[in-house]
Amino acid sequence: MMRARVWWQTLVMVTVLCPSVWCLPSDDDSYGSRGFEDSPLTEVRAVEGGRVLLPCDLDPPTPGDTTLLVLFFRFDSVFPIYSLDARGLALLQGKQQASKPFQQRAYLKVSRGQQGLLLEKVHSEDKGEYRCRVDFRGSPTRNSRVMLNVMVPPRSMTITSDLDPGREVKTVAGPYTEGVEVTLACQVRGGDPRPKVTWWHEWSLLDNTSEVNTSHVVKNMLTLPPLTRADLNKTLTCQATNSELIIPMSASVVVDMHYPPRSVKLLEESEEELTLSEGRSRPIVCEAKGSRPPARLLWLSDGQQIPTQLLNVEEEVEGEVSRSILHFSSRASDDGAILTCRGFSPGLPKIVLEDSVQLSVFYKPRVEIDLELDSEDLEEGDDVTLECLLNANPPATSVEWEHNGIPLKNNTFLGTRASRTTLWMKNITKGSSGVYTCAATNDEGTTTSSPLQLDVKFLPTCAEDQHTSYGVGTMEEILVSCHVDSNPAPIDFRWAMNTSKGVMQLPLNLTSNSGRSSVVRYTPFSQLDFGELLCWAVNEVGRQREPCVFQVVAAAKPEAVSSCVAERNATMPASYVILSCVPGWDGGLNQSFILEVRQEAKEELLEDFRHAPEPQFFVRGLLKDVHYLLTIRAENARGLSPPITLSYCVKGASEANTLLVSHARNTLLVLMPFVVLLMGVLLVLTVYVGVGVLRASKERRKRCQKEGLYYSTALKVPPECHDAHAIVCGNNDYDKEELMKLPVESITPSAALECQDYLLNNYGNLTGSLETDLLLKEKLASLACLPPLPSSDSIGRCPTPSSICTTSSKSSSKSHSSSKSATSSLRSASTNNSSVTVALNPEYLNKRSAAEALYALVARLPQESAV
After folding, report:
1. For a Cys staple, 324 with which of 297, 505, 517, 724, CB 3.0–4.6 Å?
2. How far apart are CA 846 and CA 830, in angstroms?
3. Given pLDDT bands bounded at 50, 70 and 90, which one contains residue 432?
4. What φ, ψ does residue 88 adopt, rounded to 5°?
5. Residues near 242 by Cβ (< 8 Å), separated by ≥ 6?
């Protein structure tokens, strides 16, 4: 198969390249038949991997002639390795063809002055003789020869050292120590012709004797004299060359050396002792000179290396000088220690130099309290001795004892005596319990010992600040709590009742004990059962000596509050005021507080708030230059206390208002004659006004019973049937603003009919943030069918309507009562904070005209539209 393929290629080449001009015999073919041996020979040299031009003259010898065919042959081939066929074409457009070994790297250059075959990526196998044949249209064939010599550079160079056998020396030879002799071998492989290997130091030739090991390896051995510090960083170069066309191959190594430091020294004024203060950082400098590489410096204390995490070191290197700056923060345990700086060359760790100094560390006193007895077995009446153990440099100049942060002095009456380091306490009491400390002072400062807790066991005693007076009626049960101070906690309680009939023990089934508290259930059946409840506790130490006494009295109404203050600072809005009072006696029962807000000019109730746990209120929404009456009452199960009323007027926004009423009740007594006169005038006016109000109220009830509207504030769009009185629900200012925009002329009968469905669909849509905003007082009390709007519940939603007006007066009455109970329960739920926020709608007076128009419209609605 291969033979057939070769013959086919031969046939194709002959067919293409054999025109009648040179394949057929002719008179001018005598030169071509003689061959190439007599043609001119040109020698060219090339470097392996480079490029070379095999010259061949392509220009016709006679003017007007043209070049038809160019052929290049190798000496060992009968077929051309490259051909250019320009028959019928210009020379530059001729057909080019190269044999396989020369494809992609042989190109014919036809430019005048640089004519011939250009070979790229020359191989060593390309060397030898090449023949060039050029055929012209009219001129005889031209033949020429070219001898190509390929120069092969050395392939590799390796340097080794006898002191480190088996490892090639790359760029650095060594490191070596002083005084050693080193032999470096440079071995070169490959190269044609054989290279010459030499050793150089800068421009000085050190050795030019090459040794041939094999036909492909040449070596040169360089032996250096004993090394000194002057040989450091000496550069030695091995060079191999075999032609001026090839850049010599070379490799350089630098001699590296290691040698120990010549000196290591602490740069301190005193060479014997170094004085330091505990916790104060002080730089200590250690310097090492003459080391290669730069010396490594270590710090030791009493011969032990200081841990790295405890060091704060800065290092500096300048040539062969190393410095280590230790920012030493000494401790008390370092007093008397030997601080050492050790230096050595990293390449010669066994050769070290050291310098040392003794430390004298000043520190605050080390204080600790020692107790001779077991602190868990101390009881009232025991004697206790405390020792203050000191360790200080310099010695402590003073020692002080403290009990719960209060300094202790010698006190014979209390049985306390303190010396420099000892505290004696005789006949300790429960007041001796607490934290004891010992503080010592020297020139470095003061140190306080860790606290020592003394836990003195004692008999139970009555706890302070507990409720000692209870008001109750006959046949009513009360719960009385007894709290005691006891160490350890009581294991039992005993109750007794002291009345005019004598002292009577109470049954155990009426008591309940928990920790240091006990609760008894007591019911007075007659006036003779009022008196004193007595409570005793028992613990491991013994029984309580004096009982806790609780007065059980007949319940009464609470006393009025006192020392009331209504104030606002300059940073608060003008519409805000804070009202606070001091509560009076609670009448023996749990009391709460009521705030009523009125406009002084009309005496109309704007807002009231009940069930406040403390007489503290935060009122907002007040109008400027309007006088308000703020009335505070206390309330318990027996009734209300006398009222205390303040008159308050809002001033400018930048002014701070403060109104004090510390004796409101006495002031009221002084003004009593004027009050009586005023009440007489008001009584006459009330008769006339009352008749009108009753008639208007009766007429409005009839109209409401006909229509029966729902009432809510959580509306996306305010309905036309909404009352003019704005109620705050969940701090939703949108509802209050929308209510003020209600136009009277826009109210139509059809809109009023749709109001009830609209209100039902909009209940529960309020999603504003829940604050302590509360309901306003029902200002339209005469309209029984319009209950007040509910406030927001615990999750910030408006609850469902509390009542529905119907045509039945009985239903209306029930609805109104349920509204009051719902409102009361909601207000009770909002008294978690002692301070209560009451929001007022300052523009409610402007809504009266709108409300009147609304009720007049409802009266004209047809009967069948009622709910």
Report:
1. 297
2. 29
3. confident
4. 80, 5
5. 151, 153, 154, 191, 192, 193, 194, 195, 196
